[in-house]
Amino acid sequence: MGSSDRHHVSSTSKVVANTNDGDEHVDVEMPETAHQISTDSWFQVGFVLTTGINSAYVLGYSGAIMVPLGWVGGVVGLILATAISLYANSLVAKLHEFGGKRHIRYRDLAGYIYGKKAYSATWGLQYVNLFMINTGYIILAGQSLKAVYVLFRDDHVMKLPYFIAIAGFVCAAFAIGVPHLSGLRIWLGVSTVLSFVYILTALVLSLKDGIQTSARDYSIPGTAMSRIFTTIGASANLVFAFNTGMLPEIQATIRQPVVSNMMKALYFQFTAGVVPMYAVTFVGYWAYGNSTSSYLLNSVSGPSWLKTVANVSAFLHTVIALHIFASPMYEYLDTKYGRVQGSALEFRNLSFRIVVRGGYLAINTFVSALLPFLGDFMSLTGAISTFPLTFILANHMYLVAKRTKLSSLQKLWHWLNICFFGTMAVLAAIAALRLIAVDSSTYSLFADL
Fold first, then answer.
1. What is the H or E stretch that residue 42 is in?
2. Close Cβ partners of 408 (under 8 Å, ≥ 6 residues apart)
3. CA 433/CA 349 separation, integer angstroms
4. Is 321 a residue whose pLDDT tops 70?
5. Listed range (67-81, 172-186, 375-389) with the worst mean pLDDT
6. Is Membrane a UniProt keyword of this protein (predicted)?
7. Is the bond into 328 cis (omega within 30 degrees of 0)?
8. Distance of alpha carbon 391 from alpha carbon 382, whole angstroms
9. 8 in a domain, yes or no?
10. Number of domain units in the chain
């Protein structure tokens, strides 16, 4: 490997690893990739996961989850979504070395279990999932920049699409400079500090506003029919809040033993990692009720300088978080077309990333500016990709892979999960498409929201 930043692993190489069923050591086949794998501690991977959970998306959960569900539905829904998501992710994590092969991509695992068609279908679902998440991140980054602008010059000269374009350019520059997911390293520490800045700011200012406000309305807004659709859409937001749809890709970076280390990272994510998200979601809703903004920092009142710091922190954190969710696409393009040789910072490798990653994010940025409806994107992403990838596919893959070791009751449990989440995915997709249609008729393309 030498001094190269590239950790290229031959598709025929073997390593000694623990199986999923005990402490017995076996040879595990390693797939080919142009990115680093098996280099990170479980703690670093835990921070990758919590960076996704506590991204600037948390500033929208008070409005996107609590407002349509209310106190009972929102609190119970978040707790159930946490437990169910941990369970579903643990199923996928335990299949990482299934069949003596290490499956570093979600599509590799599905293809190994089901065949070529499932490989393609899973890759399609995952691409849609990650593209929608990245689109939402660029919308968020643009909203953060616009919020800073409005604090000092509310003249409508600079509109949201302009800020989205700026955000897309910065995200592309970061993507070009950081070659792979393991290369984040110190940036994960930076992202943690940034997330604490905007979460604590939103918490403190929301608490202040809530204490000073005597009356708030917690009723679920809308007609009976519209509430049905918004409730279903909010359920998709619940699962979107906790799941990446790219767990095998993240697990690929972790050191051996990969299953037990990944479980540690997941436990970290779903315990300490969810506390900030819970806090800002519940306090934001408590402070403003059903008038909570879809971007919490737009609801809070306080010193302009403090709100500026919080919005800039949210913007910078979003740039880092987007890189995580774009990394499977980068890995695919780098492995298939990059032919990386030598340092990742050499001119040829840099120019490749400029063209390929810059082009990919340019498409994301265009879609973000065209349809900047953040809550709708969260609902649609949860419906058409997060539900299938995280719950339906996870349960069915585990059922197929472990069918000889499961009791009849366990098999029934997994089938119930598959049927329930399949139904929820269909209903949530219908609700999300309706929301997008309604918003598209209300706002023009390239809307200045």
1. helix 42-53
2. none
3. 40
4. yes
5. 375-389
6. yes
7. no
8. 11
9. no
10. 1
- The DSSP element (H or E) to which 335 belongs, if any, is none
Task: Give the Cα-Cα-Cα angle 447, 372, 437 (nearest 5 degrees).
Answer: 85
Domain span including residue 221: 14-442
- CA–CA separation, 393 and 73 (whole Å): 26
User: How would residue 228 be classed by pLDDT, with cut points 50, 70 and 90?
Assistant: confident
| Nearest CA-CA partner of 54 in 225, 269, 217, 257 | 269
Task: 83-86: list long-range contacts, CB under 8 Å, 24+ apart.
Answer: 84/239, 84/391, 85/239, 85/242, 85/243, 85/270, 85/390, 86/266, 86/267, 86/270
Q: At what angle do helices 106-114 and 393-401 cross, to 10 degrees?
A: 50
Comparing 375 with 245, the larger pLDDT belongs to: 245
Query: Per residue in 365-384, is it b (16+ CB within 10 Å) or e — as a string?
Result: bbbbbebbbbbbbbbbbbbb
Please give the distance of CA 121 from its chain centroid, rounded to a whole number.
20
Distance CA 77, CA 242 (A): 12
Q: Give me the sign of the Cα torsion angle 30, 92, 321, 44.
A: negative
Structure confidence at residue 141 as a pLDDT band (50, 70, 90):
very high
Q: What is the CATH number of the domain that holds 365?
A: 1.20.1740.10
pLDDT of 341-355, one tens digit each?
656 566 777 788 888
This prediction's pTM: 0.82
Residue 236 placed within a domain: yes
Q: Is residue 67 part of a domain?
A: yes
In the prediction, which pLDDT does 28 show?
53
| Secondary element (H or E) of residue 28 | strand 25-29
Look at residue 385 in the predicted model and tell me its pLDDT.
78
Structure tokens at 368: 């973000």
Per the structure block, which two tokens stand in for 87?
């369970």
Q: What is the mean pLDDT of residues 172-181?
A: 84
